[in-house]
Amino acid sequence: MLQLKIGLQLESLKLPFRQALQVAAELGVQAVEINARTELRPENLSRTGVRHVRKLLADLKLAVCSVHFPTRRGYGEAEDLEKRIDATKAAMSMAYELGCNVVVNRIGSIPDNKEVDHWSMLLQALSDLGRHAQLSGAWLAARTGADSGQRLADLIAALPSGALHVDFDPGSLIMNGHSADGAMQKLADHVVSFRAFDGVRDGSGSARHVQLGRGSADFPLLFSLLEEKRFGGYVIIERRADQDAVASCQQTIEYLQSLF
Question: Which candidate among 16, 22, 217, 240 keeps its CA 20 to 30 Å from the CA of 33?
Fold first, then answer.
């Protein structure tokens, strides 16, 4: 049976870092997702700083489920690409030092034409990051959303084995007009983290994020597909633009627990 391990994106709480950790522990989650841009930056985190953060986490009985490293552009765009790759590598190394092996980012659009420069640039960049993952002990997970599950699966198949994993976000897939169920069927073998994020899209094309269980995602089905693959990762709660972020996160935890 699939075991529920809940992580929480600290940004969702809209609180200072230390206070957010305390609230996460009070909510009863097992782990947190840390933003490596706004909360802990690799270039500012010394070895002493790493030990301090790990002690703080241990005192609160929290682990780090993932490190979020958002970049302005994807890995298939030439502008500042080397700088972006190096910064991602630094985030991967920091994640490992914090006891985590998953770094999450949106990798950028995936072209359907494999003859274009964008495709080859994307392959080269992700292959490079995959090689670094073998050295650092932390892997890049592409957050789903803009592209279909099939297109992302095709990209993963074109890369060296294990170079790229998946942070599965059903809400973003739905909001971009894709099937979350269909994407899971294509990507389940590669999913290392699951985003507790729901969404709806109406007939006019308008899309919005909604409370978990109130959107179009079929969570029982998605979890059953993961169970078939013996998924052992975290289900990561993410909320946006709520008046009471803490209460919203608590409702999400209760909904997830009701499914298990």
Answer: 217
